[in-house]
Amino acid sequence: MKIERVTGTEFTFPTYRSVDSAGHSHPGPETLGRMALLTITTDDGTQGHAFAPPEVIRPYVISSYARKVLIGADPFMREQIWHSLEHWQRGSAGQFTDRALAAIEQALWDLAGRALGQPVYRLLGGYRDKVPAYGSTMCGDELKGGLSTPDEYAAFAEKLVARGYQGIKLHTWMPPVSFAPHPDMDIRACAAVREAVGPNVALMLDGYHNYSRMDALRIGRALEKLEFTWFEEMMNEQSMDSYAWLSAQLDIPVLGPESLGGKHHSRADWVKAGACDILRAGVPGVGGITPTLKVAHLAESFGMDCEVHGNGAANLAVCAAIRNCRWYERGLLHPFLEYDDKPAYLRSLPDPMDENGFVHLSQQPGLGEDIDFDYIEAHTVARY
Ligand code: MG
Fold it and tell me: Would you call 72 exposed, middle or buried from its count of C-beta atoms within 10 A (0-12, 13-18, 19+)?
């Protein structure tokens, strides 16, 4: 089997999510969102697919890097392909990103699953077929009845528990919200949510990502009293020493790094430096499913958990393939939005959750994304 074609298809779909000046999602009016579908096709017609924003899977990336490495290659030689692609990253002057690398590698896994008639999570290891989800909220806002006060977080948390979630992670207020960052508001929101849901729901905080050491320490000590499960990306992750400083002083597990580059290499450095108690990696952030597995296996070797960052079929497949990850991150969630409504370009949700808070893995071959190819065809705006 050899790869014959690599293509991108950009299409539109209706969305009620808008993005603020810091890149955070919030509810908004209905607009047309844009998405791209990367498709890898072999000489026997087998295909693998991955969705990514159009700016990630750009025509330049496909023509200059993806096709150069993939055309003619055996799609099952993923490790060789991945290293060849990574080799091109250095000379691309930042144009060939980890996210693009991840989309290509994800499509190769999808292709392998479809070719073998197996769900990808089973090919990756296969540890379980359902994973408990935590509800991951959107960042705080200034929308009345939304997530603008501690009481609104508490009311939303009650709804999430009624929906079945066994865990909830708060993203609190960050610039450009006018009063953010605000450590006292963060602590009040966490206290209000704990009060609302009681002691048996796992709670996590992912607050402002650029707190000082002293603000982070103060919030962390408050979270310890509230019996939170972990404290995530509260400082700039480019300062590993700040995380080592904080982890040494707090009892609550510090989780990271999430947004830091460096793939699995930087995660190894964090373990050695004692900069976190729970490791973090997500498929788009570290360049694919395989490097995410490498991080998870690294963590397991050191007796640590690795919590997988972000939602979607690829992250879910990793969660189901490893033992040392407790949760799947389901979201982002907001009182004004219905997460259980599927996107227009899928026939069903990739991460359906039951009333007990478990997300069930698709048993379809590949990554299990139930792609509506007719919808995409009817809403295509560019092919490359
Ligand atoms: Mg996070």
Answer: exposed
